[in-house]
Structure prediction request, 300 residues.
Amino acid sequence: MKIIPGSHSLGATVTELDLSQPLTDTDHRLLVEALANRGVLRFPNQTLTARQQFDFSARFGTLEENVAGMFQEPGLPQVMVLSNIVRDGKPIGIADAGQSWHTDMSYSATVAYANVLYAIEIPQRAGRPLGSTQFADMVAAYETLPNEIKRRIAGRTATHDFAKFWDMMRRERGSARPALTDAQRNTKPPVSHPLVLVHPVSGQRALYANPGYAMWIDGMDRSESDELLAFLFQHQTESRFVFTFEWTRGDVLMWDNLRTIHQALADYRADEPRLIKRCQVMADRVLNQGRTDRHALAAV
Ligand SMILES: [Fe+2]
Prediction:
């Protein structure tokens, strides 16, 4: 296995590793370190069944089973289908997943650690890939915060709400997502997490806020919280922190949700098919050997 870092603070390419085969303990350890240090890992030229994608992903933590219960691989509800393809009048996947800055599952008591996506069909136009995924580096974003802001967010937590992103997509992006029912809202009550976390592998401090789900800073006057979050949202999405990943069919992409925020670019049409399968690794094992206590997310 070779790990080749790119020129941005995020991103490395991993070659000479066949993800359809069981991962050795040594390679597993090296990948955990590389993921923490580079945030985003690309494994080109892979050929995976859904089961093999599941097995690789599950080495890193418990896999989330999406509560919506839709667009899952038959028999493997932890493998979700992201796609704009419609077959026999029925969509085969979620068409507009992640099309605005967020980090996965910050609305959940047990947050997401890693995502593992496998590209089966990638739209192209004039030889250029469409539907790129952008990442922003939250270690760099924290390091470059003014000292006054670091002081104001030190020891603070923020409340995250699943409904914020969903409602925004419906209201501002014309999404075909149905309105969330009260029952669905009640299954995902808002949760609080530290605004600055210590990465469990690298020990680096990272800003843990995102425009998709962060609602307010707990225990702070609402107008001050709004003003401070607006500053953080603007700062953390500055282009100097952003790494844009262009997909190639056969890529497996793995990223660290504790180190990065991300968004999918919606620059392709309904008749330009995109098909990606996703596993979501929860942060239970990486935070504390299988404990699912959210307070294991170490705060600064
Ligand atoms: Fe996402």
